[in-house]
Model the fold of this input.
Amino acid sequence: MKWIATVDGVERPLDPQAVLDGASVVEVEPGVYSVLTANGASIEMRVNPAPGMAGAWNVGVNGRTHAVTLRDPRERAARGAGAGAAGRQNINAPMPGKVVRVLVQAGDAVEAGQGLVVVEAMKMQNEMKSPKAGTVAEVRVDAGATVAVGETLLIIE
Amino acid sequence: MKWIATVDGVERPLDPQAVLDGASVVEVEPGVYSVLTANGASIEMRVNPAPGMAGAWNVGVNGRTHAVTLRDPRERAARGAGAGAAGRQNINAPMPGKVVRVLVQAGDAVEAGQGLVVVEAMKMQNEMKSPKAGTVAEVRVDAGATVAVGETLLIIE
Amino acid sequence: MFRKVLVANRGEIAVRVIRALRERGIPSVAVFSDVDRNSLHVRMADEAVGIGPALSSESYLNSGKILDAASRTGADAIHPGYGFLSENAEFAQACADAGITFIGPSASAIRAMGSKTAARKIAEAAGAPVVPGTSEALRDAEQARQIAATIGYPVMLKAAAGGGGKGMRLVHSEAELAGALRDASSEAERSFKNSEVYIEKAILRPRHVEIQVLGDQHGHMIHLGERECSVQRRHQKVIEECPSPLVTSIPGMRERMGAAAVLVAKAAGYYNAGTVEFLADDSGAFYFLEMNTRLQVEHPVTELVTSMDLVHWQLRIAAGERLTVRQEDVKWNGWSMECRLYAEDPDANFLPSPGRIQQLSLPSGPGIRLDSGVYPGWTVPMDYDPLLAKLATWAETRELAIDRMIRALAETSIAGIKTNIAFFDALLRDHPFREGALHTGFIVEFLERANTPGPDEDTAELAAAVAWLHSRSKQPVELPSSTQKSKWLEQGRARLHRS
Amino acid sequence: MFRKVLVANRGEIAVRVIRALRERGIPSVAVFSDVDRNSLHVRMADEAVGIGPALSSESYLNSGKILDAASRTGADAIHPGYGFLSENAEFAQACADAGITFIGPSASAIRAMGSKTAARKIAEAAGAPVVPGTSEALRDAEQARQIAATIGYPVMLKAAAGGGGKGMRLVHSEAELAGALRDASSEAERSFKNSEVYIEKAILRPRHVEIQVLGDQHGHMIHLGERECSVQRRHQKVIEECPSPLVTSIPGMRERMGAAAVLVAKAAGYYNAGTVEFLADDSGAFYFLEMNTRLQVEHPVTELVTSMDLVHWQLRIAAGERLTVRQEDVKWNGWSMECRLYAEDPDANFLPSPGRIQQLSLPSGPGIRLDSGVYPGWTVPMDYDPLLAKLATWAETRELAIDRMIRALAETSIAGIKTNIAFFDALLRDHPFREGALHTGFIVEFLERANTPGPDEDTAELAAAVAWLHSRSKQPVELPSSTQKSKWLEQGRARLHRS
Done:
């Protein structure tokens, strides 16, 4: 069967069975695959689910990690880039951490580049800035909250 | 509840909940327990099932391994030391390996200490000797067979 | 020697100290915050005491709780590791008052070197070269402007109580000065509860070279040569090496720097292990920067090259033993390099990446030293710094130490969180790095010139196919529609059934 | 240097060589038998070629298949490791004939040293001391009786083609002689397809001390000092160290042994790495035993003390480079000790224990070198020797190297199979061992005096309770009848739910 694979952002059609034909693939440790290709190369691949994304995998090869997504071409092609409503933009946590300061309130007008919220993890503070001028539509977190990576902190419109 | 525990051959009554009371026990890796005892000692215990024996565990502590069995005292106490029929004695494989030579046939008379069968693993041959004078009642393996640890090779009576 | 030693730290350095204690037959006591119950240092210690919430100020930085844990467990000495209470003079004094040996320098030596401005005065008085600038905290922006005009731009603003790059600002022109001073000062206040900032001439493209010193309580002090730690990101060291490519290229430089470092440390009445940091330029000129009055994160590279064990010596010196090594006995053999493996995402501006380690493979073999604080299945907490492990290599030459590191990194895999392993792999292959053309802005320039190409066609295809196979195997078995039975599928499936 | 190197071995030594190749940027080719598809050396190599069934004679010992794999993959050199084809002169010659570099000595040097009797003659001619006895294979029991009467009992019978203790018998009196000769001869025939046996005076309580030599193809040869390998079981080394406690206690002994070893090796036209084995007694007298014409299992202890990488040198020498190290450049620094971790059961007469490794924890930190061929989840096959990994420590002194080893062993856990880890722990605490009072019968005597006490009350009780907890957690949850909720149970269960 054909799939659409994206590897480090580059999309390609993929017939995994054809690619693996003639190869020997063994899961030697959980998620760790020893691959002997048809031409004799020994390659170790470490597959882990990408946090919080179904159908997305991080594949480690020779010390480097490649982001892989797999999509059945029969599925609807586009999943919608934003949250639907044009102009609304989610500000998501770039890392797991704790919200140390919320710098704006719902209804505030903000400029592009203005600080919105500060998230801290591992002694490092990261100030989320507004990607555009607009209005704060919604603030979803309070100072002191613990957030997961990708969690929406607030919405600008 | 009370149990009967055997540790390295020494039997003792055991109330595991009483022993663990006040301690903190966390399975930090599969089968690996970090124990903080009530008096503050940090002890790591590695529990693995003893191959081929239900209710028997190997527990590694500080680089040493202790053989532990647990028995509910309400169970029948003795499991019978032999295979039932008095005088019959099973000769079991002491290690996993391959049978390289069978030195006797069913019906042969054997002396105590006489070689019966040679098992090889890891380039080491181990000759199983008869524990007593008697007759070979049964030979269960042929040369070339692969045997598991504890598997009965032949029976002397 | 000691009856029992409490290790007032966590992570890899706590593990490092516990190992040394075990090797000397001394029982160890770990302390842990609520989120560290399952940490490796707790597993490895002989005893462990919970000391409260994740927040450092209520646990690892709380000297009362630490001292209480020591007295409850009967520990007669405390090793502070680095960070946390290691450079806290009050804590060292409180230990002394409680009759507990602080494994480090005296409280007065920590105090003398604790303020960068005071340390600068001591260094100047001892005759060590210092960067032109103030030894005193700046009163205000006007004073800063006057001094900057005298020493000339660019200038560097630095927190007097600082460390780790917090409260530092590089200022290129007068226009930026007032704002930078305000930022540095408030960052210093937040980080160190001390807003004092001083000013120095900025050395452009400086190299960070530091001297390890070691002295006993009987007045004998030696240096163990230099480490070069120029490869930094946001003023945090990332790669360290011993010896320094710069110092080895300039005759006599090690001896001059070593002598200066010993002078400064002696002037402060220092004993135990310490590090005197210098800025250096490519001509071999060097300037006293500050002294770290504790064991350094990067001490392994010095240990590998000098064959001396600094933590063992810390224990012996703290117990009052004489340092039996003379300066002329110290030999530097080969080359060592250390990479700090961090839980961070190099592809997203090095943001922290705490979380559960799903799979872990660690390197070994010849010339490898690993100081790790993690294990498979452990959840790296978000509450502390992102250092997971230090990977050091030793080899006869710098080139081989680098190639050995590349080999070791390829054996290393930490899945479930992001790490900087691939970043190191790229950096170690960088031509200027291999040439030893280092400076503290190295990484910024490297990131500009580095272009990590995507995977080649075959690798990309194979990675996707294996990800597909993996996704199949983790679901209720769903056979591919192909009627052909290929070898890989059988083997893969056989294996999965077995495990 | 080479285009590509095939490693004709498996297990930890194949991994060791692959690592060195990677460090030098040379692609590696692994070979594997059917039961080794999942082995670590296959995972780590750049390419891998299947060479047939588990039986060594049809795979790792089959020179035709190995050479075929080399030519198919375009390898221009073969590293044989130790064991298997490493001391097979015909294989070395076949490599040469095929235009492939054999990374080791010449076929003629292997041949010269391959027969113990021939080697003995070379050693005698070169002026090295040899044990009184024959250099020729014994014709019959009558000849053996005559010679034994001349040199005096006890005598040792040895297979001419032997190694690893196979075909050896110690004979205390004439009455035992004929039977022992028959046994030794048939064992030699089985093991080496050569029944020849010779006779020597037995040195009582001898120490096994060997000299590492290294020579290039241009006539330059040096020695890297000694290793003491007296701690043996069934003539297999178990613990090795560098330097030797004996040799360090006798002035000039290293120099005398080293000179003798170089003489012998040169007389055989030797180059590359090799080891000249001696028996020694406590007076410092030593006798040539045999030469191993390959890399030795225990080479890491020499590497750790001399800072030289023997495998890198093997590659460079095989490629025709000059050995640039002079004898006077060789320095011995500190002390190193190695434990061979075997899959065997010390509590059941050291029977082999192949099987699946269910859980694996390996040691790291300062002064630790681990050369391992295993990983968690791997099934150790029953077909090859039981060596899992070599654990070496380095420290400034022998005492600290031992204590560090004890520390490292405590960090090591290999679950699912039996290993000799606990045996080492007990041996390293043995007083005569710590005194360095070693001889080749050391382990037999140690096992007689060793009494490993059972666990103390508290440990036994706790171990049983934790086993109980584990047994509960692995079954469909079955709550204990107690109404009391204790802390450990909650935590244990919480953890189990999470993972």
Summary: The first helix of chain B runs from residue 16 to 20. The domain at 81-156 of chain B is CATH 2.40.50.100 (OB fold (Dihydrolipoamide Acetyltransferase, E2P)).
